[in-house]
Automatic annotation (TrEMBL):
<feature type="domain" description="Radical SAM core">
    <location>
        <begin position="70"/>
        <end position="291"/>
    </location>
</feature>
<dbReference type="GO" id="GO:0016829">
    <property type="term" value="F:lyase activity"/>
</dbReference>
<keyword id="KW-0479">Metal-binding</keyword>
<dbReference type="InterPro" id="IPR058240">
    <property type="entry name" value="rSAM_sf"/>
</dbReference>
<keyword id="KW-0411">Iron-sulfur</keyword>
<dbReference type="Pfam" id="PF06968">
    <property type="entry name" value="BATS"/>
</dbReference>
<dbReference type="InterPro" id="IPR010722">
    <property type="entry name" value="BATS_dom"/>
</dbReference>
<keyword id="KW-0949">S-adenosyl-L-methionine</keyword>
<keyword id="KW-0004">4Fe-4S</keyword>
<protein>
    <submittedName>
        <fullName>Tyrosine lyase ThiH</fullName>
    </submittedName>
</protein>
<dbReference type="GO" id="GO:0005506">
    <property type="term" value="F:iron ion binding"/>
</dbReference>
<keyword id="KW-0408">Iron</keyword>
<dbReference type="Pfam" id="PF04055">
    <property type="entry name" value="Radical_SAM"/>
</dbReference>
<dbReference type="InterPro" id="IPR034428">
    <property type="entry name" value="ThiH/NoCL/HydG-like"/>
</dbReference>
<dbReference type="GO" id="GO:0009228">
    <property type="term" value="P:thiamine biosynthetic process"/>
</dbReference>
<dbReference type="InterPro" id="IPR013785">
    <property type="entry name" value="Aldolase_TIM"/>
</dbReference>
<dbReference type="GO" id="GO:0051539">
    <property type="term" value="F:4 iron, 4 sulfur cluster binding"/>
</dbReference>
């Protein structure tokens, strides 16, 4: 309830009434603030702040160098299953989509692990559709036991779990959790999550905190940009991340900025989030949350990703397949969404080196 009460304080702010009163001086003060407040963060997301992207970029660059140096962590996702019991309007894996369903067995997972680890990557993110029946916690544990022979860091992006279930996964080797609220506005959330357990808004919202209480090393949160007004969703994402950072300072809190991509069964009634909007969100997030990780995935085209290096991004995916078994299997399934940047791990490493940045394949290890 503490998180829900905290979020409640901010969700009913009339953003556009606040924005209408802002001046250029307000934006300049927010950019230069040594310790920006949540309201400063809101100021940096305003329409008028969109005229100050260059100033925001310079500030974000300085903060990024101070906190992360010239380095970017590379990782890749591994899809274990596309079975799902939810009916979500924005996802190829939803239960009524007539796609080919597949779940990897342990031998297939090991084959995928060998293919990916041969590229040098040591951080991996495993994903499933949301089905406790097809991919129960025991299945995920068994998969982690296989994968930890090949990887130093294993994160999960699965259905929300109970605290004791997160603790079990952490005990066997999981150190990171990615879970997107998808959309923080409860009315929109209820609309796009048509059926299934994912309709339980608060159980999903509180999942990162349950993982923090279970002593996970890092949590990564975010909204799926395009489902609602991006300024509102970016603001609530920042509020959520700030809450977690303040309450669990020992946990590495990160934010992802995924935009909706083309996928099987897609309809077109989404809010447009332009490149300059995405850049403004990232710069505002870096200034407000100087210690937070920021992930930009292969949903974005390579030219944009290249230009974001140095402005706040700390993690990038590389060599990505969003199909189940997509790294090694010749038996193709539908992807969760189309990726935009199709570069290999080697090409991503070269890009970072050309910019004077160090591609990080392994940044910590279990002792």
């Amino acid at each position: 309830m503490e998180l829900l009460n905290y979020m409640e304080k901010y969700k009913n702010i009339d953003l556009y009434s606040y924005f209408s009163q802002l001046t250029k001086e307000d934006v300049k003060r927010a950019i230069s603030s040594r310790k920006p407040s949540i309201i400063d963060y809101l100021t940096l997301l305003s329409p008028i702040a969109g005229d100050f992207l260059e100033e925001m970029a310079q500030r974000a660059h300085t903060i990024s160098l101070q906190n992360f140096g010239k380095s970017v962590l590379l990782y890749t996702p591994l899809y274990l299953s596309n079975y799902c019991v939810n009916l979500c309007s924005y996802c190829s894996f939803h239960s009524r989509n007539k796609i080919k369903r597949k779940k990897l067995n342990m031998d297939e997972i090991e084959t995928e692990a060998k293919e990916i680890s041969a590229l040098g990557l040591k951080h991996i993110l495993i994903l499933t559709g949301e089905s406790r029946k097809e991919t129960p916690v025991e299945y995920i544990i068994e998969a982690v036991e296989v994968l930890k022979k090949y990887f130093d860091s294993i994160s999960i992006e699965v259905y929300p779990l109970k605290e004791d279930e997160y603790a079990r996964l952490i005990e066997v080797g999981v150190d990171g959790l990615t879970i997107y609220q998808e959309v923080y506005d409860e009315k929109v959330y209820n609309k796009v999550h048509i059926a299934g357990p994912k309709k339980e808004y608060s159980f999903r919202l509180e999942a990162p905190e349950r993982a923090c209480r279970a002593k996970i090393r890092g949590v990564n949160i975010g909204a799926l940009l395009g489902l609602n007004d991006w300024r509102k969703e970016a603001f609530m994402t920042g509020v959520h991340a700030d809450y977690l950072q303040n309450k669990y300072p020992e946990v590495e809190v990160s934010v992802s900025l995924p935009r909706i991509r083309p996928h099987v069964g897609m309809v077109s009634n989404y809010d447009v989030v332009e490149d300059k909007n995405l850049v403004q969100i990232m710069l505002a997030t870096r200034i407000f949350l100087p210690r937070a990780g920021i992930t930009i995935s292969t949903r974005e085209r390579k030219e944009l990703r290249d230009n974001l290096v140095g402005l706040g991004v700390t993690k990038m995916s590389a060599g990505v397949s969003t199909e189940v078994g997509g790294h090694s299997s010749t038996e193709k399934t539908e992807s969760q969404f189309d990726i935009s940047d199709t570069r290999t791990v080697a090409e991503m490493k070269q890009m970072l080196l050309s910019k004077g940045y160090q591609p990080i394949l392994k940044d910590w290890m279990h002792i």
